[in-house]
Specification:
alpha/beta, 6 strands, 10 helices, single chain, 6-stranded parallel beta sheet
Length: 256
Amino acid sequence: MNVLVLDLDDTLVDDTRATRESVAQVLVSVDLAADSRAVDQALSHIRKMWSRHPHRHTGPLTSVSGWEVLWLPTECSGLPVAVADSLHRHEIRVWQAIIESLRGDPGRAVAMARTFRACRRRALRLLPGVEAGLKVLGQKHALWVATNGLPAQQRMKIAATGLEPLLDRALISGEVGVSKADPRFAEEVGQSLRQDGQRVCLVVGDSTTQDLQLAGNGGWPAAHICPEGVCAADVPRGVVVSHAPSLAQVSVRCGC
């Protein structure tokens, strides 16, 4: 059976919109404006502060986004205690910076951190058409997820969104030891393929730097998920890429 290698965040599971909704709910909870500009400002702080964090590239935290690190598991994360403690302090400092920038009370940062965790957990959901698309694709393909992140976090998303019974395998950067863009990740996929006597039909994902690079490293064709269904993505040399606005369109176009 041919294998489809699928990205998780913003390909199967809603990440960007769910994050923006959760940030807006946090701002409302402390009586601040929660319009698009305020959410953009908050996300800017989140990105900048994470980019300067000393553990930004520590083990499984490599390629974890600034907003995801704000709701990583606090227990059974697999992270060293010192790293986990630094992430907790970072979480509070981020919300302090955000509320101060919006002229609020920084003393409410701990409550904001708690509210974001709760909101973001409730916002876990599949993107439209994903469940139906996977059921169609799963009739003729083995479905593998390839995702960057902390294993405990990514496996929680898979379980909480009902993806587990639809997938045949999950390859997570925190377990493989390198991010999807690293040639060694493609080697891990290749080794798994050889063990099962299978081949990759298509790599599907929204990231040009991670998913398309994985396809390039493995020499596999790719489907790039982009909102308009067409874009000027910076495609790695030698990769055959089609574009689609969602997984539903990939299921219609996949010819293998």
